[in-house]
Amino acid sequence: MSSNPDSKRSPLGRRIHLDTATPLKISATARHTCRMCASGCRNYDIMLTEAEVRRLSLNIWRPLLHEVPETLPLVLFDNVTGQHLLNKVEGRCVFLDSDDLCIIHKSSGAEDKPVACQFFPLHAIGSPAGIHISLNTGCRRLVEMTDQDDPLSPADATRLLAQVEAITTIPDVMPLTPEQMIPYTEFVDWQNRLRDILTVPDANYWPRMQAAAELLLTIPGDSAPLEWTSLFAALHKLIGGLHPERPSAAVLFARTQRWLPALLTNPVPPEIPFAYGPFYAAIAGQYLEGHQAALHRTARTGWVALLAALVAGIGGTVHLMSNSPDATINIPHTLNNTLSDALELFFAPAGQLALTEPNQDAFLRGLLKS
Known about the structure:
By secondary structure, this protein is of the alpha+beta class. The protein has helices at 39-43, 50-56, 103-108, 115-119, 154-161, 184-198, 206-216, 230-241, 247-256, 276-289, 299-322, 331-347, 349-354, 357-369, and strands at 2-3, 14-17, 24-26, 75-78, 83-86, 88-89, 92-93, 122-127, 130-135, 166-169, 173-175, 180-183.
């Protein structure tokens, strides 16, 4: 490991021009068949390329749209990201029809949809070793994926990536902690060690998470006399005091408030009546193979975020189950939704602010002792 006093200013992920000659690293488990749930059409903001902005902002689409005000622009500019986005009506993409199917897809074909929509729920990130493609852990139907789903072919990946103007790329050197920089090869070594622990589909997955916490505690961090719930308490406080500009973020915060309070006192719930070990192993594998930890401010932060989201998924699901008036609640889907929300939340600014080094250390020590 090397030390660098400028580590706090080092970029973790930058959008750079895509070189399609870069080698593709496609996860063997990056399989997907669209379940047409339209969840992505509600939960995510779709960033557009310049060509898509010109094509999808045309008024020729207006006669096909339902319940979209004539004065509402179909495309808007997001001052936060500097990107053009598809607009929404009450949380729904303007092109989402009343039957929960995409109007663009139905009227013009799948290849005329924005490339972000065509690619979802796949996730791509560039690195010094190539472009890593895995499943996006935000998909609400990952719990249904099996070996019967279609794998992504290199030809399809190349076709989709050819339409991408830029891709988030991690550098040759990145921060392991705010004080320590490591080369990409050392980051991959940490990833592989965590993958060996977390991708084993044990029915009782809790010891796997504890072993990962023990490994991450070997990375020097800032210790403080905090409860291991401090991470969730900080997140709860931040969400309560923030008013996000994006409607999708506001919806995420509202969903989170249904289960996050349950983690403020004791985030160790009884084992839920669902064999979540294989699903958790699959989620951890996609997160690690997709290099998603590198999109956080430090690699350690990203790995702690994964473990905290796994804990939140279990605790949140138990809470929602016990408070649901519907006895037929779908446990696997509830777990998928809660875990996906937790992962997304830790990528948001509020999640990043909650993941202070003392909170990280307290959470890891508490998980290890639980």
